[in-house]
Design goal:
- The complex is a heterodimer of chains A (254) and B (284).
- Chain A is mainly α and 254 residues long.
- Chain A has one domain.
- Helices cover 75% and strands 2% of the residues of chain A.
- Chain A has eleven helices and two strands.
- Chain B has 284 residues and is α/β, with parallel strands linked by helices.
- Chain B folds into two domains: 4-217, P-loop containing nucleotide triphosphate hydrolases (Rossmann fold); 221-266.
- Chain B has ten helices and twelve strands.
- Chain B has a six-stranded mixed beta sheet, with helices on both faces. In chain B, strands 2-1-4 form a three-stranded antiparallel beta sheet, with helices on one face. In chain B, strands 11-10-12 form a three-stranded antiparallel beta sheet.
- In chain B, a hairpin with a 2-residue loop joins strand 8 (198-203) and strand 9.
- The longest helix of chain B is centred in the middle third of the chain and has 16 residues, at 162-177.
- The two termini of chain B are 34 Å apart.
- The chains are: A mainly alpha (254), B alpha/beta (284).
- The A-B interface holds A 3, 6-7, 10, 13-14, 17-18, 82-84, 86-87, 89-94, 246, 252-254 and B 13-14, 18, 39-41, 43-44, 50-52, 72-73, 75-76, 78, 80, 82, 84-88, 90-91, 95, 99-100, 102-105, 142, 146.
């Protein structure tokens, strides 16, 4: 626990000092909420829900995937290829403690981001607040852990630091659009809805919207929770097989 | 018990065998150098000993443990300088050393390690602003902060200017005085000669010579005489320089010509190294 907190503190320091990471993963979902909220916020409903609340729930989900999935994957690929992970692996710090601290650090970022988004939602775009704080925190935790596991698995597919943003964005940006962060999936063509029907973010967003509408969102959304959890479990299994500490180009060197 | 005991170590990458069963020992408090050209297998050997790579055959004991199976306790007793620097660019020198110090149970004071690595002026500088030589000294500081018994230095001075290299040598000599065991790889023969108590020359995955620098040189003919004759460079290696010089100069005087650019010098380890690594180059 001492080692975990020691590492967590430094991971936080590194995150906030890295302006690009802080912008794309922390600030962008907040900026989008302000922009889209000011456009649609107090006009109509989206997918049968008050538009402000729909956008708030969607951008909370966007914050989770941009931080825990995209940001984490890019950061770990860059660290792997620059040899930082290999160097850390040569110290007595247990590898599990390291990864737990890195994921814990993204959780802190997501938590802070969520608080800012809730405040903007409440006071700027007239959105509702979650009916049950417990269900809200559970949803943030479930989404963070599941997408962090998928992010770790994704690092195994990316071979170079230069390619990491391109590959990660190619996977996560379409997911963000198809899963209904910005608009209702009901208006999309059939084949996109078919893709959306298997993506984990679709179900995380269903759950998140439910948290704003129903008091007993968790018990009424067991299906969505199960889908996100299964994706997380798949991510974990793949991560255990594919995650590497050493740079790719160093694999065959003498 | 030896700090490192390697016997019959084998390693292949795919079908390419890069270590053909090498054996050597490093005793406590000893500086041992692994020398060889690029691709000889130095880094592979060191990374197996550090626990980064698995071996395909032979036995390896480092501080009494098998590095392929050893865990945190083992890694707390070794210090590592990898071939290329790798640290968080956004932390300062002091911050990264404090981070690493926290990983070890018996860490040294960060200020002490900064002084030992000669980084006092840079203690507050972000890592990304450091020069190549300063980064290398930070690597060394990170390897020392856990107060290890055994230190691996993989080409610690590659890319240094001569002044910085001398300075690094002094630091490494200082470590030996602290009683640390050191395994050093280098392709600079003069570095091995300056630092190593014993060394092994590695070529194409085999050890072609091993011993103290003095032992290695004693087998070879000790002095080299060079001069030019009709524009042609002539090299004579001999154990009897007095007699050979006398013959050469007598003949030159008798025939009235000059031994142009004559030079008499002790053979260095460099000469031996070049012979051993060049002689059969391309065979493996």
């Amino acid at each position: 626990m001492r080692l975990f907190l020691h590492e967590l503190r430094v991971q936080q320091k590194i995150f906030w000092r890295s302006r690009e990471a802080a912008f794309f993963t922390f600030l962008l979902p907040i900026i989008f909420l302000v922009l889209l909220g000011s456009i649609y916020g107090d006009r109509d409903t989206i997918g049968g829900i008050h538009a402000g609340t729909y956008l708030l729930a969607g951008l909370l989900g966007y914050g989770i995937v941009s931080t825990a999935f995209a940001g984490l994957a890019i950061q770990l690929v860059v660290r792997r290829e620059s040899g930082v992970l290999k160097r850390v692996r040569g110290t007595p710090l247990p590898p599990r403690t390291y990864l737990a601290a890195v994921i814990g650090s993204t959780l802190l970022v997501i938590g802070l981001e969520a608080v800012v988004q809730l405040l903007i939602g409440r006071f700027l775009i007239d959105a509702e607040l979650p009916r049950s704080p417990g269900a809200f925190v559970f949803t943030l935790l479930l989404g963070t852990v599941a997408f962090a596991a998928l992010g770790l698995a994704l690092t195994g597919l990316v071979k170079s630091a230069e390619g990491s943003s391109a590959i990660v964005n190619a996977i996560y940006l379409p997911m963000v659009f198809i899963s209904g962060v910005f608009w209702s999936t009901e208006a999309m063509p059939g084949f996109l809805r078919a893709i959306a029907a298997v993506l984990p973010l679709t179900y995380l967003l269903d759950l998140m919207r439910d948290v704003f509408i129903h008091e007993d969102a968790l018990s009424s959304s067991l299906g969505a929770i199960a889908v996100v959890a299964v994706w997380g479990a798949i991510g974990l299994v793949l991560a255990l097989r594919m995650f590497r500490w050493a740079p790719r180009e160093g694999m065959s060197g003498a | 018990m030896s700090s490192i005991d390697v016997s019959g170590l084998k390693k292949s990458y795919g079908v390419r065998e890069v270590l053909h069963g090498i054996s050597f020992r490093v005793e406590p408090g000893e500086v041992f150098a692994l020398l060889g050209p690029n691709g000889a297998g130095k880094t592979t050997t060191v990374e197996i000993l550090e626990g980064y790579r698995d071996r395909d055959g032979g036995s390896v004991e480092v501080l009494g443990a098998d590095p392929a199976r050893a865990g945190s306790e083992f890694r707390g007793r070794i210090g590592i300088v990898l071939q290329s620097s790798a640290v968080y660019p956004l932390l300062s020198v002091t911050e990264i050393l404090e981070l690493f110090a926290g990983y070890y149970s018996g860490a040294r004071s960060v200020d002490e390690v900064i002084a030992l690595a000669g980084l006092e002026e840079k203690r507050k500088a972000r890592v990304r602003t450091l020069s190549g030589g300063q980064l290398r000294r930070l690597d060394l500081a990170l390897a020392l902060v856990g107060d290890p018994e055994l230190i691996f230095l993989d080409e610690p001075t590659t890319g240094f200017d001569p002044g910085a290299r001398r300075q690094a040598w002094e630091t490494i000599k200082g470590l030996r005085e602290l009683g640390k065991s050191i395994l050093l790889t280098t392709h600079y023969m003069e570095e091995a000669q300056a630092l190593a108590d014993r060394l092994a020359i590695l070529r194409d995955g085999r050890i072609v010579a091993t011993g103290s620098p003095r032992e290695l040189l004693s087998g070879a003919e000790g002095v080299e005489i060079r001069y030019r004759r009709n524009g042609e460079e002539i090299v004579v290696a001999t154990d009897e320089p007095t007699r050979v010089l006398h013959e050469l100069t007598s003949e030159a005087l008798a025939n009235g010509y000059e031994l142009e650019g004559i030079e008499v010098r002790r053979r260095s380890l460099e000469d031996l190294y070049l012979e051993l690594t060049r002689a059969e180059a391309g065979v493996g």
